[in-house]
Amino acid sequence: AQSVTQLDSHVSVSEGTPVLLRCNYSSSYSPSLFWYVQHPNKGLQLLLKYTSAATLVKGINGFEAEFKKSETSFHLTKPSAHMSDAAEYFCVVTPFSGGYNKLIFGAGTRLAVHP
Amino acid sequence: EPEVTQTPSHQVTQMGQEVILRCVPISNHLYFYWYRQILGQKVEFLVSFYNNEISEKSEIFDDQFSVERPDGSNFTLKIRSTKLEDSAMYFCASTGTSASTDTQYFGPGTRLTVL
């Protein structure tokens, strides 16, 4: 069975400091992994995705994530937080199941950015 | 940029009433999905739809739920007799030619409140 664990429900950083949002996954197959972001009253927007190419994935707005198979992790990072990064972040796995792949979401991490 | 749209943004209904949530996926997409997020909980997969039929559904998607693509643009979720526990944010998503590798694009959601 596939699952995702986001290790922190809330993360608070100061503007200009690094961001680290942690995610561990469990998958029987070679997974595809994603990070989505949800700003208040908005839909879910894709930040980045890993689909078995390069293990370091760069996304939008300066975010990146590294796939580490040995650690079953896919942590999201950003060197310098901006106020506009405050949002809910979801780590997502999709198991390969023949084409109609549902997304399995983690519980989410709420990122707060302080001036 | 093409986007998934959903209407209404907020629906309030009485328990036992039928509701229809509407989605317009991105026009050239072939795979369609519904997810829901109960307040404070994870985003959960409900159903996927391809080639005018359900391709996968979760345990949540019981006989009270149905989906339909009534024309070439709309994708609807019907709840036949709503329960209090159906109160949630419902997200529609769509993806392109290959569900195993393509990104799922989400709409802004419909907040359903069952009284």
Summarize the structure.
The complex is a heterodimer of chains A (115) and B (115). Chain A is 0% helix and 52% strand.
Walkthrough of the structure:
The complex is a heterodimer of chains A (115) and B (115). Helix content of chain A is 0%, strand content 52%. Chain A has 115 residues and is mostly beta strands. Chain A is globular and about 40 Å long. Chain B is 0% helix and 50% strand. Chain B is built from no helices and 11 strands. In chain B, strands 2, 4, 5, 6, 9, 10 and 11 form a 7-stranded mixed beta sheet that branches. In chain B, strands 1-3-8-7 form a 4-stranded antiparallel beta sheet, with no helix packed on it. In chain B, a hairpin with a 2-residue loop joins strand 5 and strand 6. The radius of gyration of chain B is 13 Å and the shape is globular. The interface between A and B is medium-sized, with 26 and 27 residues.
The proportion of strand residues of chain B reads over 45%
Q: How many distinct helices of chain B?
A: 0
What's the rounded overall pLDDT mean of chain B?
92
Overall geometry of chain B: globular
Which structural class do the helices and strands of chain A define? Answer: mainly beta
Reading the helices and strands of chain B in chain order gives EEEEEEEEEEE
Largest β-sheet summary of chain B: 7 strands, mixed
Task: Count all strands of chain B and give the number.
Answer: 11
Major sheet of chain A: 6 strands, mixed
Oligomeric category: heterodimer
By DSSP, the count of extended strands of chain A is 12
Q: Structural class given helices, strands, pairing of chain B? A: mainly beta
Query: Overall pLDDT of chain A, averaged?
Result: 90
H and E order of chain A: EEEEEEEEEEEE
Give the overall shape of chain A, derived from the CA principal axes: globular
